[in-house]
Write a structure and sequence with these properties.
10 helices, mainly alpha, single chain, about 240 residues
Length: about 240
């Protein structure tokens, strides 16, 4: 690996679940990509909303049913048609919509529907994740899981870029140092693993961290109304992650 090797060019991501384009595609039922777009949307945001519902005190089974039904009605009632980039943060839209749903819909016999529909996440898996959550208020927990979802998606996109460039081994070696303090990064050890020089290892770590920040900002930009909102949302999500 050369010290002057450039960061791999970004390919078209296979999984882009936070983009407004996905939301807009899900609105258009005549589009052949609508169903796939909605599936990505639901899979990305199912757990943050489930965690919110559990945080309000609902039992696991009820929380799962409520979350499933929420996404079903999101489609059936065309709620996505009122979601436009200029409306603001998609994070806020989903949470407000869920709160309204919990207030207005639960008493309408939803318990009778238990077991229906495709489960996007098993109850055991969801509960194992929820058990590890910090003791936060429901809204804070939702925002934390939203931020973690964006981080996970960013990491997946970065992984995909390196795979596309034939550098999967390099990524696997470097990814654990994305959030490490600079003084704690073992550049000499990394150089040995990558069969390169220590200087090249420093450059590789620096570029990886820089690219991760770029992709994270891009993911955030895809969920807000305009470019001027990106910095505000970024600062907010970083603050959310630092609370626990």
């Amino acid at each position: 690996m050369s010290e002057v090797e450039e960061t791999p060019a970004a390919p078209q991501p296979l999984f882009v679940t936070t983009r407004w384009s996905v939301v807009l595609a899900a609105q258009d039922r005549s589009s052949p990509d609508s169903a796939a777009a909605l599936d990505l949307l639901c899979r990305a945001y199912w757990y943050p909303l489930y965690a919110y519902v559990r945080g309000t005190g609902r039992a696991p089974d009820d929380a799962q049913d409520l979350t499933q039904e929420f996404f079903a009605r999101l489609l059936a009632r065309d709620w996505l048609r009122v979601v436009l980039p200029e409306k603001g943060r998609f994070r806020t839209f989903l949470l407000v919509a869920m709160k309204r749903f919990l207030t207005n819909e639960w008493h309408r016999g939803m318990r009778q529907k238990r077991g229906g529909g495709q489960r996007l996440l098993s109850l055991d898996t969801a509960e194992n994740r929820f058990a590890a959550e910090p003791p936060l208020a429901p809204d804070e927990l939702y925002d934390r899981r939203w931020a973690m979802t964006l981080l996970d998606e960013t990491l997946a996109r970065l992984d995909e870029e390196f795979q596309h460039a034939g550098r999967k081994h390099e990524f696997d070696c470097l990814k654990e140092w994305l959030a490490a303090e600079r003084g704690s990064i073992p550049y000499a050890q990394i150089a040995v693993t990558l069969a390169t020089t220590e200087g090249a290892a420093r450059v590789a770590v620096h570029r990886l961290r820089k690219r991760f920040r770029e992709l994270f900002r891009q993911s955030i930009a895809e969920t807000v109304a305009c470019a001027s909102d990106v910095e505000t949302e970024l600062r907010y999500l970083v603050a959310v992650l630092s609370r626990a």
